[in-house]
Design goal:
This protein is of the alpha+beta class. The strands form three sheets. Strands 1-4-5-8 form a four-stranded mixed β-sheet. It has a four-stranded antiparallel β-sheet with strand order 2-3-7-6, with no helix packed on it. Strands 9-10 form a two-stranded antiparallel sheet. Helix 7 runs parallel beside helix 9. The structure holds flavin-adenine dinucleotide.
């Protein structure tokens, strides 16, 4: 029922704008309005804070169905979970109440600020500093590649509180857009997910109350990594949705397009490609849903499974969208058809929330 509901909302209110959002590289305002209207913008927020209380699998299905029509728009529910999960996992009760309530109501989105210009795969090498001063912390630094920066009201920021301790000297904080000293860079000009704004976040002497720290001092990096164990599954869901959208489009196209006097779907060479695409998508789906169940239960092998789901599903998305372009021939290579957008959008799923090389490092360290 959830899938049906999200699919019809996505097809009616998000899909019609997907091409324009990509072409104009603009924030998908129509999608945000539709998701808010359907209470689908941050479904993971627990009911006690006024949220929909969706479990990890339901959240995955929402993201998958939105990504099937518009990958950029699927980053609204996905990044709201990514940005706010550190608070849900490690924040005080007061912090949860203060920030999860407006997130659930749709009064403000959440972003996640881990990466920096010189700290990507090696995130623990970050330089952003938070220095205690009485009842406050003062933050200085630059966060890079921040999804929905400028659009979000709230930012989970990882910063160094004790440089001598490397990853154990990193703490997490909630920073608000309106805090003095917060500003944003120009939107990055990207290959894909062009409707999802990616900007730098500048922190210049941003003074925040000490109770905005998420968990204890020095636990921020652990919280950031624990968060990714859960949210990599949402990237797998996004990849899955993009791949399914490409297969669905290609499936329809090959039945219509005629060459040599018959639909190209009648050629076995085309049928085999479609069969492989569907097979890979289904394998990615099973892995992703199993990982979501593990996320919900907090199983011991979640770290391996989340990395495996993200890595596998994103590789599948890249292969399937590339094949979808192939199945449309020259038409697939133009912006008159959606599959080239899907191919460009799929690429990011192999890069963010840890590149697929990093996922393989994570898997190798946590072999079942
Ligand atoms: C559109 C977009 C949105 C993003 N959104 C966010 C966000 O909201 N919040 C956030 O914090 N970050 C975000 N990111 C950042 C993203 O997570 C990083 O780009 C990613 O982790 C890679 O870091 P890097 O770009 O510095 O690449 P690098 O770490 O410099 O990697 C370059 C290459 O080297 C490889 N490599 C690096 N180390 C190793 C190793 N040990 N072994 C093998 N290969 C290795 C990588 O796999 C990659 O192929 C976003 C990025 C993009 C592009």
């Amino acid at each position: 029922m959830l899938r049906d509901a999200v699919r019809s909302l996505a097809e009616a209110k998000i899909a019609p704008y997907a091409a324009a959002v990509d072409e104009e590289a603009r924030f998908p305002q129509e999608a945000l309005a539709a998701l808010l209207g359907g209470d689908l913008h941050a479904v993971h927020v627990p009911e006690e804070y006024g949220g929909a209380g969706a479990d990890a699998l339901a959240t995955v299905i929402v993201i998958e169905e939105v990504a099937r029509v518009c990958a950029s728009s699927s980053l609204i529910p996905a990044v709201n979970k990514l940005g706010s999960l550190p608070v849900i996992l490690s924040g005080s009760e007061a912090l949860k109440k203060k920030y999860m309530t407006p997130l659930a109501k749709g009064e403000g989105m959440f972003s996640y600020c881990l990466s920096e210009p010189d700290a990507g795969s090696d995130a623990a090498g970050m330089k952003t500093r938070a220095v205690r001063d009485g009842d406050t912390y003062v933050l200085n630094g630059v966060k890079r590649w921040i999804t929905n920066a400028g659009e979000s009201e709230y930012y989970t920021v990882m910063a160094v509180t004790d440089p001598a301790k490397r990853s154990k000297g990193i703490s997490a904080f909630v920073v608000e857009k309106s805090d003095e000293g917060v500003s944003f860079g120009a939107p990055e000009k990207k290959l894909g997910i062009k409707g999802s704004p990616t900007r730098e976040v500048y922190l210049d002497d941003v003074r925040i109350p000490a109770d905005r720290m998420i968990g204890e001092e020095g636990t921020g990096f652990a919280t950031a990594m624990q968060t990714l164990d859960h949210t990599r599954i949402t990237i797998a869901a996004q990849a899955l949705g993009i791949a399914q959208g490409a297969l669905d489009y290609a499936k329809g196209y090959v039945r219509e397009r005629k060459q040599f006097g018959k639909p190209i779907a009648d050629f076995q060479g085309v049928q085999f490609m479609l069969a492989d695409m569907a097979m890979k998508i289904e394998a990615a789906r099973q892995l992703t849903y199993a990982a979501a169940a593990k996320s919900e239960r907090g199983d011991a092998d979640l770290t391996f499974q989340g990395a495996a789901a993200k890595c596998f599903a994103s590789d599948v998305a890249m292969e399937v969208t590339t094949d979808a372009v192939q199945l449309l021939g020259g038409y697939g290579y133009t912006r008159d058809y959606p599959v080239e957008r899907m191919m460009r959008d799929a690429k990011i799923t192999q890069i963010y929330e840890g590149t697929n090389q990093v996922q393989r490092i994570v898997m190798a360290r946590n072999l079942p």
